[in-house]
Write a structure and sequence with these properties.
single chain; about 400 residues; alpha/beta; Aspartate Aminotransferase, domain 1; Aspartate Aminotransferase, domain 2; 7-stranded mixed sheet; 3-stranded antiparallel sheet; 13 helices; 12 strands; globular; binds pyridoxal-5'-phosphate
Length: about 400
Amino acid sequence: MPIYLDHAATTPLRAEVLEAMLPYFSTDFGNASSPHTFGRRARMALDEAHERIAAQINAGPREIVITSGGTEALNLALKGAAWAGKARGHRIITSSVEHHAVLHPLQHLEKFGFEVVSLPVDRYGRVDPGHLESAINERTILVAIQHANNEVGTVQPVAALAEVVRTKGPKGCLFAVDAIAGAAYLPIDVEAIGCDLLAIAGHKLEGPKAAGAMYLRRGVHILAQQHGGTQERYRRAGTEDVASAVGLSVAFELAVAERVETARRVRKLRDRLKTAVLAVEGVELTGHNRDRLPNLLSVVAAEADGAAIVTKLDLEGIAASVGSACTTGSTEPSHVLTAMGYPDEEARGAIRFSLGRTTTDAEIDEAIEIVPRAIAESRAAAAVLAADPLGQGVATA
Ligand SMILES: *Cc1c(COP(=O)(O)O)cnc(C)c1O
């Protein structure tokens, strides 16, 4: 089996999670809105899923809206907050390193007259709360900043940013957090952070794909983006996917219960790989050295093509990534590295390794044998090509 070092793209479904989901594909197939025994069984499972998810983030079960994934949770939070706040203003503030599931809904809102301000980040991908303080004004209705970055792993000072929204923002200005990338590794307490909206996704924490949740603070009003039945307290119409909801809730509960131990073990493995990879000439770490996800190693290799290295690694049995899985196939350099000040030719050499709970010592031993050599060879090949692009050879002189 190849070694999977791309847990930031998605994680394998955990056995206990699959087990918990299975009855809802067979015997317990009821519609949670039906008033009979079948429906009640589904309703009980769905209620329990809300309770479980809420308990992991210090929220109440009524503050949880279960969605068809992280992207839907973010679309609902951002568009719902924007349209509900339109009468008070049209300014939305975000950062330049957000996931496309935040950037693109906000770009869409721009077409309807909302003004989107993108805060800069430093060399390590961090947003400065001082910049938010300068950008926030009387017309600001929403601020959306991620908890951790999915490409470079940098953790944002979300509590300090929330404090700026609370003390400098106008009344009713909401703070939304994309907590999807770090949910298995960072403690999430919506009261400690002080956010109004927050999104998580199942498949980044060994749960099912197309299962997500949005936290919506009690008393905060947003506009539903999908209309039909009365499900999820009118906030998300459509017959609920009970199996997915159960899977997400069980996966999240297990991840949180084991978080400290998993983070400790995975960080040690990541640091071993990091030492080996950074020993290669011309390779340097991207993102914050200390305030970063414990499972993520992101680098740039000078004068190299990250995509070529990832292809070479795949042939040698290692699954890594150039950055975000969602932008694979695009030839554009990562907007995250661009925002961090990397020129295009440096950003081209980006490679991301993301470990998971199931990553073993033996896998990292093997990766340490393969990865540094593959990067060095790929760089050497690129250098030869650059010196002799037509392949005519230089030995004939
Ligand atoms: C994966 C991811 C998303 C998108 O979630 P999906 O469940 O894949 O739709 C959004 N934001 C971040 C930071 C992510 O890592």
